[in-house]
Amino acid sequence: AALTTLRRDALVWGSRASRAAPGVRQTLPHPAGLGPPAAEVFASYPIDRLTALVTDLDGELPRGFSDATRLIARISERLADPSALIEDAGDEARAALGRLVWGPPVGRVADARRPVRVDTAETPIERLLARGLLAAEDDRTVTVPREVALHLRGGHLFRDLAADPPPFATDTRARDEDTIVRGAAGEAFTVVREIEELLERWSLEPPPVLRSGGLAVRDLRAAATLLDVPEWRAALLAEIAQAAGLLTRSGDLDGEWLPTPAYDLWLRRDIAGRWTELAHGWLRTDRVPGLVGERDDRDRLVNALSESARHGSAPATRHATLAILADAPAGIPVTATAVRERLDWLQPRRGGPLRDRLVDWSLREAAVLGLTGFGVLASFARDLLDGADPESTLAKHLPEPGDKVLIQADLTAVAPGPLVTDLARELALTADVESTGGATVYRFTSGSVRRALDAGRSASDLLDMLTRHSATPVPQPLAYLVEDVARRHGQLRVGSLVSYVRADNPATLDEILADRRADPLRLHRLAPTVLASGLGRADLLTGLRGLGLAPVAESPGGGVIVTRPDARRAEPPPSAEIVRLRPPDAVEDSVITATVRALRAGEEASRLGAARQAAAKGPDGEPPRSPAVATVELLRGAVERGARVWIGYLDQQGQASSRIVEPIRVEGGFLTGFDATRAAVHRFALHRITGVTELKPE
C-alpha cells in the first residue's frame, strides 16, 4: 500500500524494482531531524582548520596526520562520545545546542566560518564551534553533527512516537449549537457588510497600485479608519475580496485597485450567497494576509495585495486546521495549542515556526469570516468543507435585509438592521453615517443633501425615496432642509476659462464680488451675469462653497455636470484566475504544461552541467530595450506560443542583467517564468523589465 501511494505521487518508479525519483534525497536533507555525520559535515573544512580543531580536541598537535581524511576520522572518534566536550563548553552552550537537538539541526549565525580556538572562544556559539559540537556549512549556517545529536537524544531517533493523536481538552464548558451558529452568522454578516463598504469606497476613490505591487500603507490605514477596524483586519478584507475575484488592479505597469464586474453580480446575491463566495475564495487562495506589515527575507515591508504575501502551503494549512476543528467534540472550543499539537502529529514533516503561525492566522481569519463561533466550527462551515451548499443553513440565522428606516425630527435616520442594497446606497449618498453597531444611524446635513443633488437627484426624488422607505411620515425639518438646499442648488454654475461663474441674477454676482472672502478666488466680471477666475473649476467650486453658496459644475454645452464620480470597475487581466468560478480539483492546462517544461529543463540542466551555463547565456550584444506597452504585449504573446524570450532586467540596486526566460503567465504586475540562467521558476516585476526580444526555436 505504501509503494502504491509513492508511485501514485511519482516519488518512486520502476515496475520490478522501486527506485526513488530524482530529488527525493535532496527533499529529505535531515532524516529524523538529524544533521549529516561528522565525516560529511567537516569535509569542507580546510586542512589548517581541521588541524587546529584536532589540536584543541586532543590537547596536543596531531602527529602522523598528513591528510584531511585522517583528521576527519579523528574528529569523528572524539564526537562518538562528546559528553566531556559538552560539559566543558558550559551550560549556556549546552542550552544553545539543545534548541537544535530534535531538529531542524541547522541554525543561522553571522560569520560562521570564522576561525575560533578553545582558548579564545567567548560566546556560547564560538565555544561549540571550537569543540566541533557545531560545524559551519557556509558563512551563515551551522549544523549539529549527527553523532552529537544522537548522544544528546540518548540514542533515540524520535522524541515521541505516539500511536494516537493528542486528545482534545475536555474540561472546557461546551456551548450549545444555536449559540455557536448565531455567533458565527453574526460575524459572517459583518464581514460581508465590511467588504461591500470597502469596495464601494474604492469604486469611487480607488487607491493606486504601488510600483512594486500591492497597497500602500497609508491607503491600508485609510481603509482601516473608514471601517473602524484594526489594520490587520482591513488587510484581510482586501485580500479576501481579491481572492474571491471582486477586486483587481486596473493595469499591468501601474493603475488602481478597483472592483471587478463580478462585484456587481455579487451584490445581486443575498447575504448567504455573498458569504459563500468569500469563504470559497479564502479557502483556496495561497495569499497570507497575516504576513502584511512584516518584513520579508530581504528586509522589505510586505504590503497588502502584494506578491510577497503568498505561501504555497496556506490553503492546505487552512483545510487541515478546519478539519481538526470539525473532528473536535461537539460544542468544545479548541485552542490554537491543541490544533498545533494535533497537526504536528498528523503532519510531522510540515511542522515549524511558519506552519504554527499559519495555524494561528487561519484560526483568527476563520473567526472573522464567521466559519467559527466562540472557537467552534459552525454547522454551515461544515457543509462548506464537505462540498455541500452552506447557504440554506446560514440564511436561517441571518437577519433579513429591510427596506424601512426610522426618520426622526433631529435630521437622523435609524436603520434597525441590514438594508437592501439599493436603499443602503441611496442613504449613503444622501446622509452621513454617524454610528454603526446593532443599528446604523444616518445624519442628514446640507452637505450630504447637496451631495445627492450633485449626483443628479432632484428634491422630489429625494423626498419620494425618503417617503417610500420611512416607517413614519417624513419630518417637516428634513423636508425643509431638502427643499432649501435644492432651491439654492444650481443657482451658480461654474465652468473653465480657466473657470467662470454664471448666474441668472446679476445681484448674486455683485454680492460675491463685494465679499472680501472672495478675494483669493481671483474673480473679475466678464458680463453682468458672468465672472471669470484664474483658478481651476474644482478649486473655484470649493471656494464658493466655502462662502456658503451651492454652485454646480457646468459643461461647455451649458448642461449640469454630475460631480459625484461614477463607480468604476476594472476588468481582470486575461490570465487572471477567478478562484470562485474554478471547480475544486481543476488545474489549468497552462499550469501543467509549465510544470512539465520546468521539470524537463531541470533534468536537462542536471545532465549538461557546465554546458547549461553556456547555453543559458543570452545572445551577443546589449540587453534588449522596448516600450513598456510593447513589452507586456510581447510577453503575453510568448505565453500563448510557449516561446522563449530574452529580457533585460534591473535588480533592486539598478544593475542591468539579461535573462533567458520561458514565460508562464503575466498578471498582477509580474512575469512568472522559468529562468534558464538560474534553472528555476522566478517572478520578474514588469516595471523592472527594460525590453523583450523573442528567441527563435533552436
TrEMBL record:
Traced from the root, the source organism's taxonomic lineage reads: Bacteria, Bacillati, Actinomycetota, Actinomycetes, Streptosporangiales
Query: Could you tell me which InterPro entries the record lists for this protein?
Result: WYL_dom (IPR026881), XPB/Ssl2_N (IPR032830)
Instruction: State what protein this is by name.
Output: Uncharacterized protein
Pfam families documented for this protein: Helicase_C_3 (PF13625), WYL (PF13280)
User: So which residues are the signal peptide here?
Assistant: none
Domain spans labelled WYL: 631-693
Question: Superkingdom of the source?
Answer: Bacteria
User: Which parts of the sequence belong to the Helicase XPB/Ssl2 N-terminal domain?
Assistant: 405-527
